[in-house]
Amino acid sequence: MSDHFPPAEDVLVLPEHLRRDLHLRRGGVLSTEPGVFDRALGEVAPGDTVGPAAADVAAKLADEHRGHIKAVLSAAASDPALVAHARAYLGGADDPAGAAAIASIVAGVRGGNETPRTFTDGWIASHGLAFAACALAELTAVDSFGKGLRPTDALRQIDSVSLRRVRGLLALCPEEEYLRAVERLAAHRGTRTRRFVVSYLVPTRDDWMDECCAEPPSAEWGSNAFYRERLWASVSTPRHLELLGWRLEDSDFDALTYGMRATMADGLGAAVAPVLVDAWDRLKIYTRWREPFVELISLLPSDEAFELLLERYEREFAGAHLRAAMERFPVRAARVLSRVAASDSTSALLAAGLLRTHLKARPELSGPAPAPRVPDAPAADVPAVLTAPGRAPRLPAYAEPDLLPQVLLKGGGLALPAAATRRLVALAKKQDESLDAVRDACDRRSLADLGWALFLHGDAWALAALGLLGDDRTARELAALIPGWVRRGTKARAVKAVEAIARIGTPEALDVLAELAKKAPDTTVRDAAAKARP
């Protein structure tokens, strides 16, 4: 199959509902039109400006605290260099460090979120975006306490709304203005907090971000959500991820809005797939974020993202969004499904069924020649339970016989006809004990393959059905899934898997059960395994 993809299959397109709450980056996608609440969080839109009146408001605020400012600048405890910057700014000099010092002094007595936002808008109105960006970087390095003013290199949090607003305005401003800001910010990267803030404000400088990723804070790093968020919003190359050695953690999902995941995808493109999937594998993701999280993975234009999603097809929302990815990336889908179907992966059976569906719907696509079908067995050789009259329950579309692995009779030369296969699936769905006769008459491996293909589609009944259809390999593969289910909070599913392994009942399945009773990563699962042993 050709490695060529149509241009549209290599482009990340974020739908409107996933573009809410983005942290804008220059050259990236635009967020949706922000509402009043979104603007209060720092979002901006094309055409947004800061009116000239903002300069007067900021000046008035500083004037209201003129006495306190004078006292702090005159205090013996204040740093002389910072005092000099502050006095220069008050005297009309273009001095971002001095502006930051004045804002810090006022915030120290006035408090509240509006103080830094008032000064930020005032800086933009009176001195321009480049100055405001530099002043925000300098603000991280200033600490005003009581009647003193000192420099600091601690991970000092500054107003996130002001930062996000300036980043957004820089992302949307004319090119000349942006380049001027980048040039000026180069002189305001002297401490690690300044470097973090500068890289957040102008994330297009990958070399600056390399420096941030190469020197992350140590002891305090894991608990400082503010700076984790700033850097997650600024990564844009796989090298950044490599240098950071990061994984998303539960605390990131508490601290970050959903828009941060889309911001990461906007910066990294398809390279974000392993980070997102790793979090999906390990963490309990907040219910409201689960489906858009899976949807975001399905939108990433890469073989890796598609295959990672295929491997997790049985999980909540994964099947629907993988099928959507097949429609979005039809050439890629045919290529990846063909490769996986020919492998010994646990997803091979699923991939083969999906590939048959995909190529049937899109005959213009090329794919591997289908394996020859084993001839149908005559009715007399089919187990009677599969030919007896009965009303089968409604089956899902993926359970059509031509999309499933063939079930062979013992000896392997003949297979169940389509009608018998439908009846078999219907009985498995009802967990009908009469399937014992089918297990005696059919090749156990092919029967287990059918069960596994059904299970990978994610319907709850198919997990229980594996107890009737599965074999030794099924028992091992189910046991391998249990730790992940426990980590992600689906403990009930892990217990159902234990019950299915017990129902398989072969000597090796019972050995797997004994191992789970000793080493399963959860007391409830260990107890269930111990109780299920004969």
TrEMBL record:
Name listed for the protein in its UniProt record: HEAT repeat domain-containing protein
Top-rank lineage group of the source organism: Bacteria
